[in-house]
Amino acid sequence: MSKRYHSRIVAAFLIASVVLPSSFALAAQDPPTSPKEILFQPVVKNATGQPVDINQPFTLAAVIQTALVNYPSIRAAMEKANAAGEGVHLAKTAYLPEVTFFSQVGRLTSNKTQGGFFSQYGLVSVAGPQRDNLSWRMNWYTAVGTYVDWEPFDFGLRRANVNIARTEVRHAVSNIELTKFDVAARAGNEYLKLLASLKLVLAAQANVDRTKVLEIFVRQMVLAGLRPGADLSKAEADLASAQTGLTQAKEEVELNRSDLAQAIGLPGKDIKINAESFVKSPENMSIPELPIETHPLLVNETNLIQTIRAREVALQKSGLPRFNLVGALNSRQSGLRADGSIMGGANGLFPGRYNAMFGFLIDFTPTQLIAIHDKEKIAVANEHAEQARYEEMADEVLGRRARSSTRLQAAIQIAQETPIQLEAARAAELQYSSRYKAGLSTIVDVADAQRMLTQAEINDAIAKLSIWSALLEESVAQGDLKPFLALMSNQQKGTP
């Protein structure tokens, strides 16, 4: 056989083994799913669309935007989604033929014995006639070649495996959305908590200012002998109590500021917000009701169930017979003659004998059907468990919606009553202060009136904010923050 003929065999074999199966594989592939399609898209943006400056007071929109950009759990979820996207490409490689190139050269002895044995690692098969005498002389041998193994059809097993990878991508993407939703909701809640504590500081400061004015007046009256010394002691105690309350309120502010910084992925940063935000109640005090199945928590669980079902389908197909087209082309040479004598020198170092082989293989192991059947039972049980978990989550979401609706109605009603309470408390404090200065009431009456006014100021400041907090809770229960953010963008004052 000439070298030109050998080259033609090799070329034809490689073209048939690589190009033809690849065309079948490409025809069987679905449209590609690239992990680049899972790029991060923030839920909200600030008004200018520019990066947020942490040295400026944050609005709620800026807080959520920063959290979505910086919080580590979102980046972790994105990387898992990218890994799942690569898993689709990995599953598609099963359509390609397995092409192996091999080569070896070495020296060996030619001692051979009759009989067979099971192949094990380290046991060397020696070709050639059996020798009567034992010889430790060695000869060269060479072997080169290629081997192609391709599965032309598989009853849908590879497609089922690709579908598993695709469902895992969908689950990973929905997990990104769920993580973003949770992070945004937490950031919004921490923002409102910090805002509430700032308003409490303002109320505490106003209380300190009032008690200080009263303490100065009482001191002057006591020094003039117009009031007993007990009044001064009472005024000083009330002032110390008010200052303690102010210190505690400031401490709560810093703790909430730290929690907000951590919630937006900037732990340790001094986050500033506009304390005058949300000074008005929203014009629209309702959040549209959405179908429960659109909640990110339930969407993510649904995609997990779909992944389990895809694995069940793949299990059902994994026990079917496997069909393979195989082919091999190799060349061998040995420095050993047919009679067992050794030629010596460089004989056997270069390929010289070519062989080609093609075949169709069928593999089927009936006993594995028992194990596959058990695996299917496990998968079905896992599916039922996740379905029960889905129902539990749905009940939890419905419960959240009921609670948030109740809280919103209560917050609206309280916000209507606190202005009346505040106006009455201011009038009472003014009257008792005037009566005390005229000697018609006691210092205890004035202190009680001031405490009542302080509590009324706190209730009024928190009442409007409670409506916003209840609206945020309602949006979280509905599974969509966009309606809340739309209300906020129309009402909030502060840095855009």
Describe the structure.
The protein is α+β, with helices and mostly antiparallel strands. It has a domain at 41-73 and 177-318 and 369-491: Outer membrane efflux proteins (OEP), CATH 1.20.1600.10. It is 60% helix and 10% strand. The chain has a 4-stranded antiparallel sheet, covered by helices on one side. Helix 4 (157-223) packs antiparallel against helix 8 and helix 6 (296-318) runs antiparallel to helix 7 (368-437). It is elongated and about 135 Å long. Mean pLDDT is 82; it is low at 1-49.
SS element count, helices: 9
Question: What is the CATH C-level name of the domain at 41-73 and 177-318 and 369-491?
Answer: Mainly Alpha
- In spatial order, strands of the major sheet run 1-2-3-4
Mean pLDDT: 82
Compute the separation of the termini in Å. Answer: 83 Å
Question: In the CATH hierarchy, what is the architecture of the domain at 41-73 and 177-318 and 369-491 at level 2?
Answer: Up-down Bundle
Secondary-structure class: alpha+beta
Q: Order of SSEs, N→C?
A: HHHEEHHHEEHHH
CATH topology of the domain at 41-73 and 177-318 and 369-491, which one? Outer membrane efflux proteins (OEP)
Strand portion: 5-15%
CATH superfamily of the domain at 41-73 and 177-318 and 369-491: Outer membrane efflux proteins (OEP)
Which parts are unreliable, with pLDDT below 50 for 5 consecutive residues or more?
Answer: 1-49
Q: What form results from the Cα inertia axes?
A: elongated
Indicate the radius of gyration in whole angstroms. 40 Å
Please tally the β strands and state the result: 4
Fraction of helical residues: 55-70%
Tell me about the biggest sheet?
Answer: 4 strands, antiparallel
